[in-house]
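Saturday, quiet lab. Running sequence design on the structure tokens for the scaffold JK sent over.
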């Protein structure tokens, strides 16, 4: 057995959809110290968050549609989210950035050059600019320089057309969704499908945007309250690469929270700004994980922190991260699975075309065997089949 391969308590109790319905009432365990704080704080609530049993009731491994069904549709569009739901995704991901007038919109980058037709709008030509975002110099058009009304005149397009030419079929079909539109859409879909629609919501560049007077967390918390997703059992995860954003959210809402972890040598941008010398390598130690568990319910590590690759890009031996995180009561939602050779470990590539699909099931099997609780995937259907194979064998 590989390190960290012990099934988590959640895995032991989750037997697929039918089995889950039978056993999870008893298996649902909410994190200590979070219950009812929302009641004390009060606030607006449309009750759309439903009456679920919390994240421990989700199927494990949980398939999280990364930016929607981004393997098949331009990412972060209602078309991408809807397709992910149609394919059966357990959870749909949104990345959030703000507009100039303070609305939260769904984009992975605040630089919208690659994901919209903004370059085709002569009226916005003068908005093209160069700026430093989290220490990286970028030239393009940025959400924070547009009002929501202006952004809504743009159309979304495929971010990596060279890799996913088929997705360009849908270029221009959808606008940039606001997070509030997604919340409304999730309510409607929940009613239509008779189940909770789970979301996994990331604050992007929170320190950078706070510096511009566009703090993300308070805006996000207001929307979560308005749509009843601010409770410990609400069908939503909140995630960020910046621990201070998650700590800030923990003071505002009780929704489950996940700290994202990039490469071992990297430093969260809020640490850089605050002079905190810790790197991700420090955060994945037992002490670092204990610190995270004091304000979050999970971690979202890069897959390389779960199974490192060797010098040739092949999968090596799993680390102790799954075991150590579970020991602290943390769930793991690593990122990101994609079917194309270019994104797979070298030993699971097939042929020489980087855009062709490789042995994605083989790679998923290796990752799922580590005992992770879920996975972000661009290819919801592939990940679901792999998860079904895995739970059938479990
Ligand atoms: O949020 C999980 C995963 O999406 C993190 O990577 O860069 O795709 O937001 P990124
Ligand atoms: Ca993300």
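Result came back. Writing it out in full:
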């Amino acid at each position: 057995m590989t390190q960290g391969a012990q099934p988590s308590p959640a895995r032991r109790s989750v037997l697929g959809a039918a089995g889950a319905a039978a056993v999870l009432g008893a298996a649902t365990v909410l994190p200590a110290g979070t219950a009812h704080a929302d009641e004390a704080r009060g606030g607006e609530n449309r009750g759309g968050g439903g009456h679920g049993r919390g994240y421990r009731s989700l199927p494990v491994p949980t398939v999280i549609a990364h930016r929607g069904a981004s393997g098949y549709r331009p990412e972060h569009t209602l078309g991408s989210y809807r397709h992910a739901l149609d394919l059966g995704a357990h959870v749909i991901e949104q990345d959030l950035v703000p507009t100039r007038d303070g609305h939260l919109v769904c984009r992975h980058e605040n630089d919208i050059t690659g994901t919209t037709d903004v370059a085709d709008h002569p009226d916005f030509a003068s908005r093209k600019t160069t700026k430093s975002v989290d220490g990286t110099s970028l030239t393009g058009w940025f959400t924070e320089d547009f009002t929501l009304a202006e952004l809504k005149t743009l159309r979304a397009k495929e971010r990596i057309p060279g890799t996913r030419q088929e997705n360009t079929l849908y270029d221009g079909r959808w606008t940039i969704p606001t997070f509030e539109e997604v919340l409304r859409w999730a309510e409607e879909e929940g009613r239509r499908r008779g189940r909770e629609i789970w979301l996994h919501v990331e604050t992007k560049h929170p320190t950078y945007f706070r510096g511009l007077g566009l703090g993300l967390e308070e805006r996000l918390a207001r929307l979560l309250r308005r749509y009843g997703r601010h409770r410990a059992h609400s069908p939503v995860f909140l995630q960020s690469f910046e621990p201070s954003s998650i700590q800030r959210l923990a003071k505002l809402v009780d929704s489950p929270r996940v700290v994202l972890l990039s490469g071992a040598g990297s430093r969260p941008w809020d640490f850089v700004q605050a002079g905190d010398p810790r790197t991700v390598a420090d955060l994945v130690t037992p002490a670092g994980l204990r610190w995270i568990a004091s304000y979050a319910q999970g971690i979202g590590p890069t897959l390389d922190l779960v199974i490192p690759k060797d010098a040739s890009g092949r999968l090596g031996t799993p680390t102790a991260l799954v075991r150590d995180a579970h020991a602290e009561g943390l769930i793991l939602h690593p990122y990101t699975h994609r079917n194309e050779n270019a994104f797979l470990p070298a030993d699971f590539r097939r042929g020489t075309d980087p855009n062709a699909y490789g042995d994605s099931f083989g790679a998923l099997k290796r990752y799922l065997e580590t005992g992770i609780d879920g996975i972000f995937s661009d290819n919801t259907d592939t990940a679901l089949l792999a998860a079904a194979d895995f739970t059938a064998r479990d």
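Notes for JK: Residues 179-193 form the longest helix (15 residues). The chain has 16 helices and eleven strands. Ask whether to fix the surface positions before the next round.
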